[in-house]
């Protein structure tokens, strides 16, 4: 049970945290359809590096030690009093969706920095070190899938597993990472991986529940499973005016058959299952030519491992039996099983919220997060704060300075608690 030092709570600055978020939101600023201020800052780009330099300058100003690993994960370390004690790790990611908001990911990094700054300014010594991490490529927007940095840290995959993944311009992850590492060659290097004592990630909820239920803090109980696939259909081009329909190998028509069959497979009267086709490429993409190629993505999620495995494994056979004329290739590119967070962290979050007079709600996460890959390494958990209308991956994404400050205060208390165990 935590009893938070009042000076720690007072040392968390709502204005400083908000100002930092707004400074960072200038890097990659975009305007949404209704004029909302969003951000497009893809990973391993010059903008990403500019944002990192800003965060590094704040961390160095605080006296934190900065280091990077071979996949570009960035660590900002506050020392503990006990030499060799395993650190408490906190953080999130700094990359955004192409049409993203100002808070998804970056708030978890800035909240970690704010919490550490408050701990230092309050003169609180912690037994364990606290490290703030910014994971590389959580979003998977430029290079799919997401969570590459945390997967590599957790040795779930080797760091070079995605070297050949190309972005929309044909630049590979391997090339972008090499360029990025050269640009950050002046930073101290650390080995990939580690064995933290615990991991805590602060994030906006990205869903509507906390706001609807009037809760200040989400005590995140776990994360549902996700599987990502790419489907490629290969037919034959033909003249739209002359080729008889019966002789065509029309990739668009086969895509419609495939998605219709998948919609039937994924029908869930309880509305728990999430099935999304979010990206479709058609070639040659002209109105008077029958398309010979279609490539579409599948994002499938479920909290129940058995459903995730059974329905996910049924995707390829369902597509194969639905298409009539095209050759089919189905490639799975992300496979994250559902996880449950550890009571060490969930209880610490709930206790800290209660001790600060904040209302809290235990909720699972529908979005995936780097925390998913920390679960096998150490007791892990997350802190959510409400976001307006539950909107995220959208420039309209918004949490108030006060909601974010409440989250940072809970994070500061949780980090202090865990770092003294
Ligand atoms: C993370 O951005 C997700 O898609 O859940
Ligand atoms: Mn995120
Ligand atoms: Mn996101």
TrEMBL record:
Residue sites binding Zn(2+) 2 per the record: 104, 139, 393
Residues covered by the Peptidase M20 dimerisation domain: 222-306
Keyword Cytoplasm annotated: no
Cofactor note: Binds 2 Zn(2+) ions per subunit.
Keyword vocabulary terms for this entry: Hydrolase, Metal-binding, Zinc
Enzyme type, top EC level: hydrolase
Known cofactor(s): Zn(2+)
EC number: 3.5.1.87
SUPFAM superfamilies: Bacterial exopeptidase dimerisation domain, Zn-dependent exopeptidases
CDD domains (UniProt xref): M20_bAS
Record-linked InterPro entries: Amidase_Cbmase, Bact_exopeptidase_dim_dom, Peptidase_M20, Peptidase_M20_dimer
GO molecular function, one term: N-carbamoyl-L-amino-acid hydrolase activity
Family: Belongs to the peptidase M20 family.
PANTHER family in UniProt: ALLANTOATE AMIDOHYDROLASE (PTHR32494:SF5), ALLANTOATE DEIMINASE-RELATED (PTHR32494)
Name this polypeptide is given: N-carbamoyl-L-amino-acid hydrolase
């Amino acid at each position: 049970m935590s009893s938070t030092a009042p000076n720690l709570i007072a040392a968390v600055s709502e204005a400083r945290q908000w100002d930092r978020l707004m400074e960072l939101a200038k890097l990659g600023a975009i305007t949404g359809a209704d004029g909302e201020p969003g951000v497009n800052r893809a990973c391993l780009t010059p903008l990403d590096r500019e944002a990192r330099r800003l965060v590094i300058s704040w961390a160095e100003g605080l006296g934190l030690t900065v280091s990077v690993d071979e996949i570009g994960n960035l660590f900002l370390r506050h020392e503990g009093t006990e030499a060799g004690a395993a650190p408490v790790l906190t953080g999130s990611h700094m990359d955004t969706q192409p049409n993203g908001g100002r808070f998804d990911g970056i708030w978890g990094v800035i909240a970690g920095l704010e919490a550490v700054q408050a701990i230092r300014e309050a003169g609180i010594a912690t037994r364990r070190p606290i490290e703030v991490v910014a994971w590389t490529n959580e979003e998977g927007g430029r290079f799919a899938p997401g969570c590459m940095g945390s997967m590599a840290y957790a040795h779930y995959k080797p760091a070079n597993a995605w070297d050949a993944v190309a972005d929309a311009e044909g630049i590979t992850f391997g090339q972008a990472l090499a360029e990025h590492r050269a640009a950050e060659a002046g930073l101290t290097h650390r080995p990939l991986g580690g064995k933290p004592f615990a991991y805590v990630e602060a994030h906006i909820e990205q869903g509507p529940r906390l706001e609807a239920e009037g809760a200040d803090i989400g005590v995140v109980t776990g994360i549902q499973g996700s599987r990502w696939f790419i489907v490629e259909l290969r037919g034959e081009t033909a003249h739209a005016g002359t080729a008889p329909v019966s002789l065509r190998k029309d990739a668009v028509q086969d895509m419609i058959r495939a998605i219709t069959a998948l919609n039937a497979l994924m029908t869930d009267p309880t509305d728990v299952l999430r099935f999304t086709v979010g990206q479709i490429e058609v070639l040659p993409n002209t109105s008077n030519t029958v398309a010979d190629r279609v490539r579409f993505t599948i994002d499938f999620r479920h909290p129940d491992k058995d459903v995730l495995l059974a329905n996910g494994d049924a995707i390829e056979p369902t597509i194969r039996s639905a298409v009539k004329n095209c050759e089919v290739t189905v490639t799975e590119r992300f496979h994250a099983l559902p996880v449950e967070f550890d009571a060490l962290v969930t209880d610490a979050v709930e206790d800290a919220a209660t001790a600060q007079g904040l209302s809290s709600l235990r909720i699972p996460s529908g979005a995936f997060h780097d925390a998913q890959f920390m679960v096998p390494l150490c007791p892990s958990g997350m802190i959510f704060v409400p976001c307006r209308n539950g909107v995220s991956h959208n420039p309209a994404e918004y949490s108030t300075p006060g909601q974010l400050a409440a989250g940072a205060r809970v994070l500061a208390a949780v980090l202090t608690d865990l770092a003294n165990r």
